[in-house]
Known about the structure:
- The chain is mostly helical.
- It is built from eight helices and five strands; from the N terminus they run αααββαβααβαβα.
- Strands 4-3-5 form a three-stranded parallel sheet. Strands 1-2 form a two-stranded antiparallel ribbon.
- 14% of the residues are buried.
Amino acid sequence: MDIRQLKYFIAVVENKGFSRAAETLYLSQSTLSKVVKSLEDELDTKLLDRSNKQIELTESGNIVYQQGIQVLHSLDNITNQLFDIENLKQGHIHIGLPPISGTLYFPEIIKTFTDLYPKIDLQIYEAGAYKVKNALLDGTVDIVVSMELESEANLDVIPLINDPLVVYVNQDHPLARQSSVTLTDLKNESFIALTSDYELRKS
């Protein structure tokens, strides 16, 4: 049994005969009759009672008709859902974000996205850069936005912004007189540091 046979059989039932169904399908009546007969032969049962002037469904035919309607409806649903996913109308996106990126840049971005695509479910996984990278590698998330990490052969990296690191010091601090500082300048300073999960810790 194939979808074409089901469609043609359903058309015959809904048009109450081969003649009108053939016109609707742009087929010859003989071609349509052969397709329906091949479906009956394949199922080894009579689907239509042709003894009267107007064809009628047999008990088996009624079952095939009802189930066929559901099959075609399910196929339409599959097609529509795939179309929606391909055209960003619905779906799920899992995003990995370090807390700093999530706080500074993404609230407005996420709001704009959800306004444009309300049926797409955004799920945020928040962790340090290395953890979100590992989540991307193992398939837990679909996309990650973080500081640049060591390159991976199986990851595509798209630079978004170039955001320099800055250091804040008291105006009386010796470094306050410098227009820029290096990490070497900071080697004797004390910091409240992030954990090793964060790329900033490595910097």
